[in-house]
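ok new one. same drill as before - structure tokens go in, u give me an amino acid for every spot. 358 of them this time. try not to just spam alanines like last time pls lmao
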């Protein structure tokens, strides 16, 4: 069988050892006689899984003790509503639009209060992160919302803006655990699981404790962070199997040496692919060099009439899911933590061969 490398932006590739472990434990988790999918979420077996999963996540991200870690449902999109419901508290909020997902966050949040767009790079086709010093940040805002890695356009924040003490709320869905992060610089970090963590549906929310208890009385209990924190993320049945797989991924990441070790591999993978793109005018990446994502790398053929031929040949070589998002076009390789460097090497080799033959 041809070696398969899955470059999907999400749901995305999982580490092979994680899938093998899940396979081995599918019918009988640790001698319990049950699959994790069959366990009561309040039974001692699953509670031990949840506790270890949270502890390992805290180790990986070095989460301070004054932050709660929540395992919630609805993916990151549900948090587009939860964030203003939990934090606005009669104030306004600042939002930066640097790509498709932060634009979606603004559209969803506007139903819940006063949303002020302080950065919008859409007219420049979302190709960079601007200097926030020229923006009109409100020093009395309830929070500043940013998406630190835009999955669609391949734009990544390198440095945080100076928010003048306003809590920063960051959607890190597509690059969480790919590089070290100083959690204390954020009020809230949230991430859909289906890129670097595990199966779709789960969302992890890391929230500073002083930001709890400010929710609108209209906030549904399932979206109320304080209520969820008080109930160990279990006011209803949590996504148990997704949490279990996330826990296996965290164990795998720790075994690799943690986030610091994983970052070194991610740098090498991204550099390899960007070097291949930049070495020729046959392929084009439009993102400012200083804001190029390590996780999501969109690129275009100079002659886009060759797109279908490129994708067909890639599939025949076992290089899957390279089509760009429908709103952007072109091609895109997502090279999350679980993508081995051999996958990027295979892609680069194919790109060079395709250019030579066309």
């Amino acid at each position: 069988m041809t070696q398969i490398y899955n470059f999907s932006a999400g749901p995305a590739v999982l580490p092979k050892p994680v899938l093998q472990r899940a396979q081995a434990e599918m019918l009988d988790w640790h001698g319990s006689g049950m699959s994790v999918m069959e366990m009561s979420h309040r039974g001692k077996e699953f509670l031990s899984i949840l506790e270890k999963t949270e502890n390992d996540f805290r180790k990986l991200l070095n989460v301070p003790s004054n932050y709660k870690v929540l395992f919630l449902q609805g993916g990151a999109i549900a948090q587009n509503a939860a964030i203003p419901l939990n934090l606005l508290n009669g104030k306004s909020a600042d939002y930066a639009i640097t790509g498709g997902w932060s634009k979606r966050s603004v559209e969803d949040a506007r139903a819940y209060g006063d949303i002020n767009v302080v950065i919008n790079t859409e007219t420049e086709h979302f190709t960079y992160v601007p200097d926030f010093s020229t923006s009109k940040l409100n020093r009395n805002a309830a929070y500043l919302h940013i998406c630190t890695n835009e999955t669609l356009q391949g734009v990544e924040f390198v440095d945080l803006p100076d928010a003048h003490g306003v809590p920063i709320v960051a959607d890190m869905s597509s690059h969480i655990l790919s590089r070290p992060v100083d959690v204390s610089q954020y009020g809230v970090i949230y991430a859909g699981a289906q890129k670097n963590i595990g199966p779709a549906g789960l969302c992890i929310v890391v929230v500073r404790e002083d930001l709890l208890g400010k929710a609108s009385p209209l906030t549904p209990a399932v979206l109320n962070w304080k209520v969820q924190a008080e109930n160990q993320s279990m006011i209803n049945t949590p996504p148990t199997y997704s949490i279990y797989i996330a826990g296996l991924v965290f164990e795998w990441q720790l075994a690799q040496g943690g986030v610091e070790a994983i970052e070194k591999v991610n740098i090498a993978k991204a550099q390899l692919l960007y070097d291949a793109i930049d070495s020729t005018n046959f392929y084009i990446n439009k993102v400012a060099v200083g804001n190029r994502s390590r996780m999501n790398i969109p690129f275009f053929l100079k002659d886009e009439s060759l797109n279908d031929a490129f994708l067909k040949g890639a599939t025949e070589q076992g290089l899957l899911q390279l089509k760009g998002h429908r709103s952007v076009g072109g091609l895109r390789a997502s090279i999350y933590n679980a993508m081995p460097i051999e996958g990027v090497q295979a892609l680069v080799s194919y790109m060079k061969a395709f250019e030579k033959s066309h």
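The chain has a mean pLDDT of 96. and btw The longest strand covers residues 67-73.
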